[in-house]
Amino acid sequence: MVQFTAHTEDTAPEGSKPLIAKSKAAFGRLPGLHAVLAESPEAYEGYQALHALFLATSFTDEEKTVVWQTINVENRCHYCVPAHTGIAKAMKVDDAVTEALRNETPLPTAKLEALRDFTLKVMRQDGFVSGADTEAFLAAGFTTRNVLEVILGLAQKVMSNYTNHFAQTPVDPVMQKFAWTPAQTAAE
Prior knowledge:
CATH superfamily of the domain at 59-180: AhpD-like
Structural class: mainly alpha
Shape: globular
Radius of gyration: 17 Å
CATH class of the domain at 59-180: Mainly Alpha
Number of helices: 10
Strand content: under 5%
Distance between the termini: 23 Å
Number of strands: 0
CATH topology of the domain at 59-180: AhpD-like
């Protein structure tokens, strides 16, 4: 297994040191994903920029959680599902939404289910979503802006999910209470 370094302010490349300070200011700690991303200041800065941009989208906090967790669960990210469970709690997203996403069970509203369904289609079909499926998404109350925002969320989550797959990033102690095992793995 290839070992990835979880950097600190002392071990990180110079270009990552201000990014670590930014993470600590935002989260009150250095998340494990960020410690790994610090190996590449460019990747780390890109991730931070995508995260900030996705937070600024027109989606509600509940809708952001649907996009993030749909992607995290689909990609079976052992690190991001617990992390975004904690983030959803901090954002005051209803636990029923979080649990439905984590367990791949129906969401509480048709609109949220349409968002999850569309996000999965974008992922599984590599962006080649049919006109009919896109129209269904729009008919559920979303916009063409939201189509682009789903793609932005996917870009952010690909960076984090794939980084965590390679690095096998340990779940942060503060998020361990939200540990998650994919349904496929649990059933095996």
